[in-house]
Amino acid sequence: xxxxxxxxxxxxxxxxxxxxxxxxxxxxxxxxxxxxxxxxxxxxxxxxxxxxxxxxxxxxxxxxxxxxxxxxxxxxxxxxxxxxxxxxxxxxxxxxxxxxxxxxxxxxxxxxxxxxxxxxxxxxxxxxxxxxxxxxxxxxxxxxxxxxxxxxxxxxxxxxxxxxxxxxxxxxxxxxxxxxxxxxxxxxxxxxxxxxxxxxxxxxxxxxxxxxxxxxxxxxxxxxxxxxxxxxxxxxxxxxxxxx
Length: 244
Known about the structure:
There is one protein chain. This protein is of the alpha+beta class. It is 22% helix and 27% strand. It has helices at 3-19, 43-52, 153-164, 230-243; strands spanning 24-30, 33-39, 60-68, 77-78, 87-90, 114-122, 127-134, 142-144, 167-169, 198-203, 208-213, 224-226.
């Protein structure tokens, strides 16, 4: 990216630091994007100003998502050695979601576990912005609803509530949107097993759907990931030289 391409990003970051000097925890420039982080008690007021300030005018909410940072920075990949084909493999089987319920990970090691991330667009200024806030309480994550600021937040917040259990205070109709009414838990939380807690089947004798313990065993998917490694380039070049 050239300096001229980066100029609007740097100008936006400087403008945000000036206008929100006492409201922002951080302003970060990375990958041609600006990310601002705020405390949850300032989240709503900052959002309103981002929309209404004529120098900013982020009139469009593009996306809103919940994030669970439990296990952040941990991985289950074998990266010390590589196979002859240049692949690394996920071999540990200890990543989020791959465990028995009784061995589920605990959250004490990850402060500020739940966050809400919002992507905004200013059509007038042709700029994008990422806004992030963390819930103050991990046991009952609550953040203000942005429904009255951007109407598009409505179903996005319902989805984050359903999948992560984040409560959006002030939302007019906060209900599950993807899982069943009787579903227990929040399936995108990192302490929710990938195989689930129960399975559902139809019992013809009872004439209704019944819930029962999960019958499948936890398993590890092992995708192959191509890695760039100079040894394979050297081997390929030597092979071409031998062939000629």
